[in-house]
Automatic annotation (TrEMBL):
Name this protein carries in UniProt: DedA family protein
Regions that span the bilayer: 12-30, 50-71, 140-162, 168-190
InterPro entries referenced in this protein's UniProt entry, alphabetically: DedA_domain, VTT_dom
Localization terms from the record: Cell membrane
Start and end residues of each VTT domain: 30-160
Membrane topology label: Multi-pass membrane protein
Organism classification: Bacteria, Pseudomonadati, Pseudomonadota, Alphaproteobacteria, Hyphomicrobiales
């Protein structure tokens, strides 16, 4: 995996980093936890500028996460609720769950987006409640940019400073990312197995 990412970045330069980060935020086949440290490693070798790497990674991430925001915003809370009700057990989300999450997000949306952009697996998903809550796009973009910049800078710096030891980043970051994904899957399966339809009252 490392050879592919480094080769892609070396061949496509900043646009390659941008493209990888866009795709990673829409459908993450390769996590940013691997892309940006390797990009930092390429910069440390003198092939790219570190600030250019950081800018390309941040911009790509913002474009990717904005796509999910716009989809959720166009769908709207009402249609999203209707869809979840139709999907029933598969969605594992009740209308009451959506109402509670919506009210919580209205109170803490800014911090939720910022912190969410720092957490593997959650970084992309946090765009959906932001869109459903109709958070102003400018505010969403500004908060996302702050969180994305911090996360991207941390990963880029790790690869840049470690240079030839960049595999150390892969060794500890990849298991953490995998653990978060596994936890999310376990929670979903538990909700799927224990889901019960809401009975009509009266």
């Amino acid at each position: 995996m490392s050879e592919f990412i480094i080769g892609f970045i070396t061949s496509w330069s900043y646009f390659g980093i941008f493209l990888l980060m866009v795709v990673e935020n829409i459908f993450p086949p390769i996590p940013s936890e691997l892309i940006m440290p390797f990009a930092g490693y390429v910069a440390a070798n003198g092939d790219l500028n570190a600030f250019g790497v950081l800018a390309a990674g941040t911009l790509g991430s913002l474009v990717g996460t904005s796509a999910w925001y716009l989809v959720a915003r166009m769908m709207g809370l009402e249609r999203f609720t209707w869809l979840c009700n139709k999907l029933g057990r598969i969605a594992t989300i009740s209308e009451d769950d959506i109402d509670k999450a919506h009210h919580w997000f209205e109170r803490h949306g800014g911090w939720a987006v910022f912190v969410g952009r720092l957490i593997p697996a959650v970084r992309t998903l946090i765009s959906v409640p932001a869109g459903l809550a109709a958070m102003p796009f400018g505010r969403f973009l500004a908060i996302s940019a702050a969180g994305t910049f911090a996360w991207t800078a941390l990963l880029t710096a790790a690869g840049y400073l470690l240079q030839a030891g960049y595999h150390i980043v892969e060794a500890w970051v990849d298991p953490v990312s995998t653990g978060v994904v596994i936890l999310a899957v376990v929670i979903y399966l538990w909700r799927f197995a224990t889901w019960k339809p809401i009975k009509d009252i009266g």
